[in-house]
Design a protein that fits this description.
Strand content: under 5%
Number of domains: 1
CATH superfamily: Nucleotidyltransferases  domain 2
Radius of gyration: 14 Å
Low-confidence stretches: none
Largest sheet: none
Number of strands: 0
Length: 132
C-alpha cells in the first residue's frame, strides 16, 4: 500500500518528466507550467513529511500558503533545506504566470533555468526525506 504522503512526490516527478519533454520539444510555455507544478507538488510533499497541513479542515494547498510555509518553516525555522531554494517557488511561479496569462512567451533560456531549478529542488527534497 502506498503512503498517501508519497502521492505529491510522484506527481512532482511526473511533472518534472513532462517539463523535460516539453523543453526538448521546444514547447516552452508548457514547460514553464510543468516546472512550477513540479516544484509546488514537491513542496507539498516536503511540508506533509514535516507534519505541516493546509489551514483549516481543507485538504487544498494554496500557492501562497505553500510558498510561505516552505520558506518560513522548512528553510527559515527548521533549516531542513538550504536557503538557496528560497526563491525557487516564486521564480517558477512568476515564469508560469507570464507563460499562462500574458502575451509573453517563455523563452528557451528562461525555461532551461526553470528546469535546472526543479532538478535541484527535487534533489534536495529527495535527499532530506531519504528518497534520494
Amino acid at each position: 500500500m502506498i503512503d498517501p504522503r508519497q502521492v505529491f512526490l510522484e506527481k512532482a516527478e511526473e511533472n518534472l518528466a513532462a517539463a523535460e519533454s516539453e523543453f526538448a520539444n521546444r514547447r516552452y510555455n508548457s514547460c514553464a507550467n510543468r516546472c512550477y507544478y513540479a516544484c509546488f507538488q514537491a513542496a507539498i510533499y516536503a511540508l506533509r513529511m514535516a507534519g505541516i497541513q493546509p489551514p483549516g479542515r481543507s485538504d487544498r494547498w494554496g500557492h501562497d500558503f505553500v510558498q510561505a510555509q516552505f520558506n518560513g518553516q522548512l528553510i527559515g525555522r527548521r533549516k531542513l533545506y538550504p536557503s538557496s531554494l528560497r526563491n525557487t517557488l516564486a521564480e517558477n511561479y512568476a515564469l508560469r504566470e507570464a507563460a499562462d496569462y500574458t502575451t509573453d512567451h517563455a523563452t528557451e533560456r528562461k525555461t532551461a533555468r526553470a528546469v535546472r531549478r526543479v532538478v535541484a529542488f527535487l534533489a534536495e527534497i529527495r535527499s532530506e526525506t531519504g528518497r534520494g
